[in-house]
Task: inverse folding
């Protein structure tokens, strides 16, 4: 939990700091975009690596790093459902769906391949899901179970082992909500206006809850990563093809 909290604080600070730098220093769009992603990825990825470096066994079981064909199907369905849910909420609250009907000339070179395609559709989903649903969610779930009265020593050693079904549901639910709120907070920190903060924060929260739920239900990160790819990719495709 301490490591996860440190990673979140570092990512928030780095993101806000980079935002301030880009508003005061003249630099190319390529550097601005690359720096914005790295400001988040380096603290999150560094935290995961630091935590896993202390483990003698494979990190895959600890973070749920598995992907099955069923996860691919779950992920595609969940990503589309989450994007649809966010679209409905945006339509009800503002009368329009962000990205849809907006025609933009696609950038070229690094801005296109990295800033529009590779970063938000491939790299970002992997790093963010490993951190938020792999590290944060599981840490909160274990800590919540350990703090429950009775059999705390057993829960502290083996996560939710030794807990009743209802206790495991409570611990998992709290973990899903907390990881989703933190996930949304990090995305809000990168916005530049109140309306954008509400829109991106709400969308991130909806997706975070969905990704957290499927992670808890399957015990794997595969479906959440695929859903994240589809969730981000569907919006980008809609904008590029408008």
Result:
């Amino acid at each position: 939990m301490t490591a996860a909290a440190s990673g979140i604080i570092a990512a928030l600070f780095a993101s806000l700091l980079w935002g301030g730098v880009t508003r005061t220093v003249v630099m190319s769009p390529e550097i601005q975009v690359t720096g914005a992603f790295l400001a988040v990825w380096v603290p999150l990825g560094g935290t995961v690596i630091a935590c896993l470096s202390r483990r003698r066994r494979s990190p895959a079981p600890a973070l749920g790093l598995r992907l099955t064909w069923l996860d691919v199907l779950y992920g595609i369905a969940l990503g589309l459902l989450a994007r649809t849910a966010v679209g409905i909420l945006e339509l009800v609250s503002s009368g329009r769906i962000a990205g849809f009907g907006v025609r933009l000339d696609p950038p070229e070179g690094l801005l296109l391949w990295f800033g529009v395609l590779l970063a938000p559709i491939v790299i970002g989903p992997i790093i963010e899901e490993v951190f938020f649903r792999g590290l944060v969610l599981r840490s909160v779930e274990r800590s919540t179970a350990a703090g429950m009265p009775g059999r705390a020593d057993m829960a502290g050693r083996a996560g939710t082992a030794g807990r009743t079904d209802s206790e495991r549901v409570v611990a998992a639910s709290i973990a899903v909500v907390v990881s989703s709120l933190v996930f949304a907070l990090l995305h809000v920190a990168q916005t530049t206006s109140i309306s954008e903060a509400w829109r991106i924060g709400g969308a991130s929260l909806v997706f975070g809850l969905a990704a957290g739920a499927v992670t808890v239900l399957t015990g794997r990160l595969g479906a959440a990563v695929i859903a994240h790819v589809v969730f981000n990719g569907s919006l980008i495709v809609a904008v590029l093809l408008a």
User: Anything to note?
Assistant: Residues 62-240 form one domain. The chain has one domain: 62-240. Residues 110-147 form the longest helix (38 residues). The chain has nine helices and no strands.
